User: Fold these one by one.
Assistant:
Number 1:
Amino acid sequence: MKAAPFAYTRAADVEEACALLAADESARVIAGGQTLVPMMAMRLARPTHLIDINRIAALSYVREQAGGVAIGATTRQCAVERDTLVKKRLPLLACTMPFIGHAATRARGTIGGSLAHADPAAELLLIAVTLDAVMTYRASGSDGEIAAHDFFTGLMTTSLPAGACLTAVRFPVWHGESRLGVGFHEVNARRSDFAFVAAAAQVALDESGKAKRIAIGVGAATEVPLRLATAEQQLTGGTLEEAKVAEALRDALAGHEMLSDLHASAEYRRRAAVTLAARAVADAKAQALGSKAHAH
Amino acid sequence: MSGERINRFVGTDRRVREDRRFVAGKGNFVADIDLPGMRHVALVACPHAAARIRGIDKRAALKMPGVHYVLDGAELAQATVPLLAGLDTPNVLRRALAHEIARYSGEWVAAVVADTRALAEDAAEAVEVDYEPLPFVTDSEEALKKDAPLVHPAHGSNVLLDKTFVWGDVEKDFVACPHKLKLRVKWARSSTVPIETFGVVSTWDPWREILDVWASIQLPRYPEQIAAALKLPHTAVCVHFDVDVGGSYGVKRGIKHTVVSGYLARRLGFPVRLIEDRLENMRAGDAHGPERLFDVEVAFDDNGVVRSMKLQALENVGAYAGRSPFQLGKPIGSIVGPYKIGSVEYRALCVVSNKAVQEAVRGFGQGPTNLALERAMDEIANTLGLDRLEVRRRNLIRANEFPYRIPSGTEYDSGDYETVIAKVLADTDYEGLKNERDKLRAEGKLAGIGIAACLEPSGGNATFEALLNPKITTSTFVDSCRVHIDGTGAITATMHTTSSGQGHETLVGTVVGEVLQVDPERVRVTRPDSLNSLPSGTPVGSRMAIMLGGAAFHAAQKLKDKLTAIGAHDLGIARERAVYDRGSVYDRDAPQNKRDWADLVTIAHRNYHRMPPGMEPGLATSHIYQVPTGGTLPTPDGRVQMYPCFSFEFHLLLLTLDPELGTPRILRYRVGHDCGTQINPKIVRGMTMGGIAHGIGAALYEEFAYNEEGQMVAQSFMDYLLPSSHEVPDIKIIDHETPSPHTVLGQKGTGESGYLGAPAAIANAVNDALKPLGISLNTLPLKASKLADMIAEARAKSKR
Amino acid sequence: MRIKLTVNGETHALDLEERTTLLDCLRDHLKLKGAHAGCEHGVCGACTVLFDGAAVRSCLMFAPQAEGSAITTIEGVTPGPGELSPIQDAFCETHGMQCGYCTPAMILVAHALLADNPAPTRAEIVDAISGNICRCTGYAQIIEAIALAAERMRGANRPAERS
């Protein structure tokens, strides 16, 4: 399983990377390589030119920006896993990180790499959609921003323009919430496999314990992650009581066609989506109230 | 022979000497071998489930950088003889590269040789093959149908074997029983999938006329089969047994890889290396495991005592067959498991289909058979409303009933199943476990207890060959050992096969040390190549502790006798007065008169004038050891003594299932294990733990699934799911030792332990967990998503 | 392509195809055979090496990408010819292997774990090795090896404190 031949360049900066991408439509950027290299080993991906962006320091950071937290595209997943700012400001991202692959893949895999690859089972896609993240990119000469719900357009497909390089992802922070809770659940055959279904929830409660704001996402069940906006609307203002949550989730998922494959049927994904999203919401509610509901 | 000895070294907690090189990364795996001028092979695979090969255009490939040769099936068929088959099926020909017809998706049709593996892969992509797709069949029962596409038209059908045995008056026993139960049990295609793929390096020396072969191999008669296929004299093949094999568990049988590599080495005049990559291995390495469909019918009384059993086993061996159909025969030697079932009808059915080829897998068919038996036992209990452990107890052979002859002719050597079970229950209270399960159920969870009581036939007598192919008259399956004490007094012992992690060097050192009463660390163990070896059946059939242990024991014993005789003669005393003690020989009546090790060595090697008259000088002995209880062929009605020894395992586990997600969690796992005398407890424990992990994989996660287009869908490790440390619970093994009367130290085999019982125990636990919902499930693997779908369906039904 | 790699403290100048993985580079160009190819697609972990101290899959990196980092292989953690480190010795003590193919990788993962966490719980050990597949042992004796190594290393060179 040896990759097809390619030329290799280590880009000094993003501009050089973009110029090289623009010059060859079969060129590809390589960051952590944890998803690209296996595809190249199986000759499913055959870039003629690999542009290594791992050493571009300007692309690796975690910082506050524009009311949210911006993470550079080549920031290692293990760095995000350990980051104190992420733990404080993006608790949903923080609690999801240990579920991404294995420690050995998080040591190399990057935040941007996972997002740009857009595998529907990737946990980061789900978190990006659930939190309304914004992707920023550079293409020769121009910068751009794409909101998460416009970014993932199909199976392993993004709306990144041709020749563009993802530079960062900015997650909005829910400021000023004293009763904030998060929840994440996924189901897979083995721990750390690609998930069959994943669900994420973030909840802010008011003083009376009612849901002030709620975000719910389901991933790996469909070609792109789902944001369950109708369920969110239905549940805002309520106490997130179990039966109501389950009903709202079922309604929200009803119109969507689920993926079916060797590992799980579409019906399984539909039912599991409801179960996992309900557990995620319950965890988020419990955390917001000061205790934990479901162990993983 | 066994039992009363007090062992100095056998059974003690010794380190496994092989481990030293492995922890430093200094094993000698086949991919570690670099020969000057060595070139690399990549394979061209057929994409269709079945196809006629109309033509192969090599021109573009041959022009590419670093490419030396493109070998196709036509050239190879001209120059070689088809590969060895086990059954008498002369019209089912198997070749290393597909010849005229490719019979499964992934089958190798050409081999490219280049300076590097990467360049060979580049060129393999450029080989153009003109295929005419043909009709194909993948399902076992479809393959049986009259109008099914024929995988081997010259054979006339897809059936390689259809043989029925009747032992005892089955019909009478069925009529006499008030209860009958029918069950269909399916063991889906999985395999033991070692982390190292198969690889071989060959090089031909035209001056000495020797083909040197290094391979990651576990195959009886490997050098013979290479020679036969390549039309070489047997002594022109030299297989190097000092290659460390990175796991095999039966499947590393790469004879087709070796024929390709060996042929190319001779043709091209330089060393040729063929190492499968993982994709080649999964799809076409010909290392798939059983895919067996059982129809079981049992006849039993009101107490759950089983009088008779009818068992049909339908095996799908894939597109070709080597020894794999024999996996229907081996279970005959323990067909009733640990139970006193009085009569049995057994139909062994084997079909070919357009799938990758099956190979011998750990247990050689025993694991699937145990699954069928143990599911039946559970369902008998459920039918009668009796406890599942109690029903087993009523059927188990009692300790005082050994040796016990089963209907198919084999005699079980020894066992004490009740004590093993009692020990497990002393550790984990069965009633308490049931209460725990019931409490979980009361909390709304799905919880089940899994039980399995299974045998591990060990010792590896291959008389199943003669049962299924009357043309075979082999009644033995030997192993051998040479022990030599050289002129300096240093001890060397030899073994004559490769190993794949079983610690055989440690085994031989321990046994020789035990007999000669010297520290095993003083025994150097070597592996001569095949030209310098005595016969060995290789590590199959859970045989090496018994057979290599036996050979080493007897060779060392001969040496000990010789040393004693030399000492007696030099002391001037009668042989009966001479006592051997830790390398010295002394006069029983005057212990101060003795000859030490150095004296004895000097006499044997240099002081011929002091030797007993007529005795051969030096201190070298060897022993070729016959299988205990072996040496007979089947009777006309198919009865024969098969394996000599029977180890026993009792699994008890508590499992929960997430009712929505179907995901399993094993909360408690206990195994009672009795393999007779344990020569090295660390090795034995490791074997059982590893076997259970294999069993967890087969039960819950692993499947080589094929789709409607005859394409294998689990092509890589992303879809074929091997248990990680998260999937294997904390297991406790509780040991018991019922020695075998047939072996030199009372040892039985343990190479298949855990794997033989775990799938049955887990399947029983899952069924117990789903029983409150009225679900019964007898198909492996028990995937979470499938379980969840069934649970959802059952709940929806009960609502209506 | 010409690259310079620092492996086990030594820097090597190499000339190889860009597509050569770090694994193949270590094995074929530097003749360090301890890292093994199990799947070549990043699942089995048999190719694990330490990359700036972190356990990574060397089959998922092309050799040119490894320039400028410190790579450690099993050969680099072996104290000397015929000498075993405490972790290696612990693996021998518990027989934390059978065929040995996944073993160098497991030992390097143990190194990385114990450097970060000298007193791991069983659950933490299980998690740390969960990215490395073993088909022989069922993991029990590997977990015991790492726990034993941790215990011995905690107790080493500290005569005043008896743990």
Note: Chain A has three domains: 7-52, 57-172, 180-295.
Number 2:
Amino acid sequence: MVPLFIFFTLLFGGCKRSLLDVKNENTYTDESYFKTQVQFNEAIVATYAVFNHQGMMSREWYFIFDLLANDAERASPLVGTELQLTDYSYTANNDDIVWLWSSLYRMIFRANFAMHVMESWTPKDADEQALKKQYIAEAHWLRGFAYFNLVTNWGRVPLKMDYATSKQNAVPRSSVSDVWAVVESEFSQAIPDLPVDYPDDQRGRITKGAAIAFLGRTYLFEKKYQQAQDQLVQLTTAPYHYSLDPSYDHLFSEDNINSPEVVFAVNHVYTTDNTQYYMFGGQEGTDARTAHTGRAQEYGFNDWQNVTASNALVTAQHYPNPVNSADYLDPRSKLLYYSDAADGGDTEYCDACAAGPIAYPYNLFGDSWRKYEPYESQQYTSAPMSGINTHVTRYADVLLMLAECYIEIGADINSGVTLINDVRNRPSVMAVNYPLTLTQDLARAALRRERHIELAGEQSRWFDLARWGISKQVLSTEHPAGPGQQPFLDKHVLLPIPTAERDANPALASDVANEWN
Amino acid sequence: MFNWAMILTFVLCVNATANGFSQEGKISLDVRGMKLKKAFSLLEEKGDIRILYSEEDLPRGHTVSLQVKETPVLEVLQLLLKDTYLKYQVLKDGLVIIVSPQMDIVADSSVKGRVLDEQGNPLTGVNITVKGTNRGTSTDAAGKFSIDVPSKGVLVFSFVGFTAQEVRPGDQVNLSIRLFPENKILNDVVVVGYGSQKRKDLVGAIGVASRKDFGDVAVSNTAQLIQGKIAGVQVLNNSGEPGSGTQIIVRGTGSFTDASPLYVIDGIQSDVTTFNSLSSFDVQDITVLKDASSVAIYGAQGANGVVIITTRHPKISRPKISYDGYAGFSRPWRQFHMLNAAQYTDLVKEWYVNYGQPLPPRLSTPEALITQTDWQKEMFRTGKITEHHINLAGATENVAYSFSFGYTKQESQVVDMSFQRANIRINLDEHVGKRFKFGQQINFSSQLQKGVSADILNGLRMPPYISVYDSTNLLGGYGIATSALDGNDAQNPLIQPHLRDVKNRALNGYLQLYGEVDLIKGLKFRSQFGGTFQFNQKYNYNPTYAGNQLVTQDQINENYNYALSYILENYFTYTNQFGVHYINVTAGNSYRDGGLGRSISLVGSNFANDEIHQIGVAKTVTFGSGSANSNARFISYFARLNYTLLDKYILTATIRQDATSLFSEANRVGYFPSVGLGWRLYNEPFIRNISFLSDLKLRGSWGRTGNSNIAGFSYQSNVWTGSGNSVVYPLGPDEVLINGATIAIPSTPNLKWETTSTTDVGIDAALFKNKLNISIGYYYRNNQNLLVSVPLALSTGYGGVSGASNSQLINAASAYNKGFELSLGYAGKLNDFTYSLNVNANYNKNSVTSLGTQGAAPIIGGAFYEVPSMTRTQPGQPIGSFYGYVYDHVAIDLADIDKYNAIARQKTGDPNAEYQSGLLPGDRIFKDVNGDGVVTEADKKFLGSPIPKWLYGVNLAMGYKNFDMMVSLQGVADVQLINAMKYYLEGVALPFNAKTTVLKRWEQPGDITDIARAGQNYGTAANLRNSSWFVENGAYARIRNVTIGYTIPAASLNALAGKTFSSLRCYVTAQNLFTFTKYSGYDPEVTEDSRSAQDLIFSRGIDQGAVPQPRTFMLGLQVGF
């Protein structure tokens, strides 16, 4: 019996519990990974990466805001989710809108996470100290950007200001003024520690100028014109060296990262030619080590032609000559869209192609987008992979915002009109200037027209109309309900809170009226 | 109703002996007002006679009074019976029978005869008794016997190992009796966890289906062998595609993460992949352990039941070669009526008019009116299937060996996929000396899945005027529809099957080794090892092609992975009988290691041309993803005690301790106890003598089990860098992609075991000499701390990127499954006609009881196409219940809408109130469920459950002479499905092709129909919102298998082919021959291909156009050499 007992013991005592300490060899944990400057930088880069996620600039961003603001109009190939945006028939389940909401919060989460892991970072030297401050400032800016877009589009939203809160499901909505206060505070905190310029290989990161521009924009949206002016005016002098790009076309070309006008743009690039599905949700998946945008192909008349340049945009190009009230066609019409001669757009494409220019077949396509398209140098885009960077804010926008401050304050309308004329005097545009003697009302009208034309297709108008409180008035006139279609209603000033958010966030669920907002 | 013979038996048993009575004695008697029954016993006592009577025959309430002295006993009896209609009769051996006038008893007659076995050999020593007496004899060396029998008497022939037979000789005097080997159901040994038990000693709910139950049929997948054969066990086909595998669900869904059971092959734990790679011809029987007392020995792995597969092991015999094979074809069993080109164009034009969109150019051309393609016809085909299986097996006293080789090739009924599998299995068992026994088993299978299936939904949506091929499409050469020309961007479904070169190979192997030693009497030690090897290589090449408006560039994806895992188990078994105490103890340990594994995937692109489909020639190759090792490990200890007292009272108790690497150190260990009690009523004297009973047992058990079907490291906060480091952002003038790192998948540090407590009671009975078997059971499975992947609020910022879900795994919920199971089996024989009928049914109620910690927010899931989530999991409802609006009717005209708006205005008091926002004539009107006058979210309600309440199966096997026939029916009832395909095929929300039912769509005011108008405003009016319009009755009854076989008689066989063959049977099988259902989709057996186990739970029963189950006909041959 004794040997048997020993045998038994050996056999049953053989398994050590330590065998269960299986190491995960496929991924690090947050604790084992974020140790040095390189990884802290990665945490910030991952926050930037959200700019190319679904709902953002790789695809849905331009559809949502161009269609909602009637810069772009549906063409017959447009079906599905985006079609609902054209006639305000979207619900709280519209994927584009759901993704926008999700990605903005993902940007907040990743910024919160980056700030969380950097708490344990003791910089080695002064350089690292500066980098740590810069990364934190970038995180603040990115979070500010997300809340800016959340408050302008949804009004009251949940505030998640740290990593722990970020992870919580049940967070109630905060008041609009509280969210605006956060936006102001985020950009204000970002400004001091951001550099004016980056080393060349870091170009594309958020600069001090971008933070000032967004703080100014925030004040402008809050109608705090003087504070806005105080911020924006800084960008017109040293150390800032922004200037208008002489070539409007260059601003919307593959090379636009080198434009002196960029204040902040989302960078796009395509690295391989087998990842065309990336922008349909393949981000960060197996086919997604890329950062392109699909706009050129989706909007392009010789490609998918999902949208056209809207009638309202075309009509807006024709206005009374600021000097003599004669019929005037804005020179940017030829840079914005292709059309027949009557509509004022470019009537030929492929000007820089080897085979020479081709007449634009207007009968087939109507007025089609030229801006952000590569059709002057190639006949087709052939794949939904454009590397043209998406402008978020550029110097012309800054000048026009500053002009708006002067005009709205009313004390120095002259300066405002001068700034508008500066934008019109871009060498490749050279539009007739407004007289400096405009009344406030006329100056305001000129400013609004200028923003419409200059920033067409740059997802600016939706925000502008909302800020000016004229969304319904303008859009229901421009875009009357067609057969079986719904007009712009009061509720459409805000986007609907996604159903999935309500489903999983009980603190918010009962705070949504009429399944909308 | 007690019959005469029964009473005889009863009386005789009580009055133990009755032999050689005289009736010559004289007695004295003095009774007054005595009941006859008592008087008889007085007479027996005094007169030394035995009186047999049926109490039923005695006049009720009749009494006798009599005084006699020294009177012959029979005279006394005569006097006692004077005032009744009863008579008496004296039998040869002195028994006195009281007979009623209906009975007509004549004298004994002598019967003789012979008893033979099934082969016709004489049986010696067979016991022959006259039923109800102890009169008996036995057969001699030639199997002959002779016995005297009362004319209505019954002879019972019994012999060890054979089924007893009762014969009423009647007028026959020379009998020829055949005895057949005993149907050993009750003494059958049933495989259980770590051992086996006699069926009579079981206290748990265990379902067994063996070859006999499978029938000699052909199935394309091993799990189909038990489809509809075991109560409470549901076999879900993953897809109608060949080789796609199955899911087995035991007693309803009791988990939110994964409801798949544990698979055990020949006593060693395995997995579903290995199970699906077995050849069905290698399977001897499949046992499903359902209740906690049976599965608790598997502890943490047992919560979803245990499926034990026993492969074929040879019994002692000379070497035998057998061949099994079939060839056949499969076809879809149902097709839709789709619009032709003219109807389609008409519909699309109307869509564009209604939507106010310009008409895409091609639709106004004449070619748009000409039907070019019947897309269904192009996508579906007749698929050929074949299987060959050869087995060489034999056994001597010391060695048993079996070698088998199988090959199967199955073509899908949908172009253009095929599946091939080759299996090799070697099985050896050796007895070494008196004490040792060893066994080795190697199974190796190689699978190849070739091609891809046409995307059915894409094909159904294609314009009929597009032709399959179009030479003007220089990129691929296929006819395509584009949104620019056609307003329809469905992809030609044949492009991918034809152009993509897909080969997915899998090599699966397992090795099983065991050694057993008899240490001392009754004590056995067994050590077993199971190793599994899996190698997969996936390969997918596509040339550049234009499928709609998206040009797909040439690309190759290659994926390699291997996995080696093993399990090592040691246990002792002690069995002994101490007088009336029977004890069986099993105790041991188990170590399971997920072992080694590595995987890598690569993407190649930029090919010079289409000549070579190989990553080596791709100019650009990028790394897709990679992983290694880090698989789960388990350390477990277990023990079981079986104790039986007096062969009547049974106790089974088990305990298992599991520790796993899946949870953090604090939560690793789980204890899983169980206890079961059984009472074999049949062995109680007062039951034993109920002659129609062959067995009766009551059983009950309670136990706790766990579930650990979760991904590892969910408790850790893992860094996310995307797949292949694809978290990137471009920086610098060259816009170089810079890597980023963050967190995308939430962690749950406190994850712990989910536990399932099961209470089980049942009654097992066998009647009429085991001809009828009945088993009735009730179970209550209470699942606690269920691991739930709970959807997170979007505002958390988790997930949202490819490969990271926006949900978190937590122990969040509780649910129960309770229900009844019933199995009935009857086997009978009428001369040459044998038959057996087995019926099983299971009623299951599933309900969530709590949603614990996440603020009790209901779990919302099941979104499809543009339809928002349609399932809702919340307390009081089954898991994954359908939830949405209630469809009422299609608005007839403006007056109809005004009527509703008037109600809305009246009820809300708001003069501008609308009943349903955006409603126009031709839109769907939904019900105002809460009666507040307007349709809002509050009007959503539960619309049914995809978990069937009823599962049933009916299996009929028949044999007549050399013919055999097997019919299996399987069905589910009280179940709902979401016919998601209606969104496209009948919803007319978008300009796609549709079913002909849309010809009845709403077109003008006054139309009364259930099909809404074309081009409806599907956003706001939301005709296609989540509503009951999609929900259909999913009940079905399906004739799974019909097989008719013919065995060529040995004589003819020998005449035909000498002695080459020992047996030859040919058969015809039809699978899924008939389906009875009201469901309007392709197949009510909604499959879940390419979806995760979790989708199976929260998006179950949503039909999005998966490949339906085919109808298959096969011609098979079984040959023995």
Note: The longest helix of chain B spans residues 341-355.
Number 3:
Amino acid sequence: MATGNYGTIRPADVSINDVEIFYSYTPNRELITDVQLTPLDPAEVLIPASNPNNTNEIFGGLYTLKLPTNVFGAKGFFNIIIRPRQIRTTIQDCSVLIDNQDVKGIVFNINQIPLDLQNRFENGNLVGYRVEYLKEETGTGQDKIQNLFRIITSNNRALPVTQNQGNSNASVAYTFNDNSTSVFCTVSPSSAPSIKPNAIPFIGNPQQEVIITNTFFDPVMLEIEMVEFDDETLAYALFSNQTKSLEDGIYTIYNFGNQIYRQYNLYEVKDQFTGKPLFEVREQKFTIDPTKDFDDITDF
Amino acid sequence: MKYIRKKINLENFTIRSIPKSVLIKNSEGKTVIDENNPKYYYGRIPEYKIDSEGNFKLNSFGQKIPNSIDVSLFITQKLDDMGIFTDNPYTAKTDTLSTKPQGFNSFTYGRLAGAPVEFYYKDNINITGYTDDSLLSQVKSYRKDVSGDDIYVPNLNTSDDTTNIFNGVISEDVEKTIYKIGANVNDINNTGIKYSTFKNKYTKKVDEFGKNTSYKTTIFETGNGGWNEFNTSLSATTKKEEYLGIVFKPEVDSAVFINRGIADIFERHALLSEIKTTNDIDTNRGGFIRI
């Protein structure tokens, strides 16, 4: 058993099913409207790398984000947020264990969880998940209770049992039972900080909505600036092949694969009365002249 | 949260090839591009991957391959300790409040000096779900019917403490048996856990050992959930500074044997001499000493 400080950073091997991805787009940095986030399906855009020695084994850490060009093919700024998937549900009950009255916990109904996520609520699977709380009262502006979270330290299917307290009083506690559809979770910290020593250990209230999030990886934000030029394209202008058609004045710059990169019309502006040359103009041509193919021109 | 900035040049994804098939002669006899030709993508980034002739590339299933801008990233998980929480004695404020502030909420208020524990109670709520039929046997009669099957007699209290607690059948019909466990004898309807076990409905399950099991489908129901005087108390807990970064309290394990090196000809005998119980065999398993 470890008794000293320890911590580590490990390559994440999170399943795509435990990931959420959102993006926002602004054409420039001066935009003043609110950021609009749009979800992306991780199954379509995030591909984990496989171990070269065993293709059925995830390599760990290395993922490829395949951004669809129909969305990301525009010039501007894309913010992409990759974060652990959130599960929203309602606390079914808050109570204690029948045999351990000082162990408080929150209870979830596994049947309220979407089918594809129910296996996360099997015994022990929620350990390390983070619980965040939504406000019980409405109309307070922000629905989420900010800066409040708890970490689940254990979860087990549990059955409510009654505790007879005498004088017609009764309360419910929980006992572990693997066939129950209720899941009893202990959370931490369930205690107050030392500067508020007698604050109650709030862990939630029955019927309160919560957001349960895995902690399988640290969220990542990518700011991707889509640009039209870089060193390579500037090098086309300097070092790549070029042609100037003397017949029609079309000046063509090719990329390093000899494909037409840009075309310009070269012409002079002269004084209409005296014929005196005033300007030499290079104007970009947007309708490409295909007869200026470099291989065709130099094939003689 | 990791923050990564990248600059990607769209030119790398822009089509610059002009297939011969999109070239036509105009009215002046000059070769121009037919910009309406579906294979003409010059200067654009197509939605699906295409070859230099403007044809869609297909995967092994004959489907078009979505065009994408690929970004490699390395995702990590950082693990840190949270420390050990420790109970602390405290003296409560003596002038306790008598009325709960309007809209009092324990988590938005946090600590409210002088607030009694009742302020944190929550009303009873209904809880329901599915479970197995293991508790049905607790409410059966000692008698059997002519077929040797169990008999469930309504209102027969089968608890050990019949003065205070009611465990027994509420009603029974051809479909299901409804019974209560742990109800107060003076208020059976509003206390205890109500179970409804269906007679001909079964739930199948694979247990943790991979074995198929089944039991009669049972619904549990109670209206006694929530925070109340029986499960809520005010307490003071804090983190001990010396334990910050430590997740477990230090434990002393005495099963330590100091290896004196391979030169010691009595090493193996000395190791064996340490083993006195079956637990010690576990400790020394594989020739290694657990520390």
Note: The CA atoms of residues 105 and 276 of chain B lie 58 Å apart.
